[in-house]
């Protein structure tokens, strides 16, 4: 029997964009990937100076602070979706408008506090994933009419954070440690 936290297949993630993001994530166990990213969060947060976080780095239109806030919002949304679909909620969950969230919250958070909040949300999502029964990882729900499973959402969460953190590293020309050595 395959592990509950194995890599997703086409029934777990149905949108091509999400599949492409997930393919870029190394590893075979999403719980390990999500846990390892906690280290990366701390290291990245420690590399960000106050002059870097509020600067726009063209061609991007969001500051680094705004990107971190976006990652916090996304982690919260992913956790809610995992919980609802794992519980068997058959409501077609609405997509979230990241730009509307961003417009209402930009500039509100101290970056170190945002990294801390992101870490707590990730830890909460990890605890949720560890306590749900193995069969529920394959429950199929819908978001915006597209089928997805808690397993798929967990992998998308890891891929989403990786995507944005890699952009932050490039923009700020920093190379924080991604792994505890």
From TrEMBL:
Domain DinB-like, first and last residues per copy: 47-168
Organism classification: Bacteria, Pseudomonadati, Planctomycetota, Planctomycetia, Pirellulales
Record-linked InterPro entries: DinB-like, DinB/YfiT-like
Name under which the protein is recorded: DinB superfamily protein
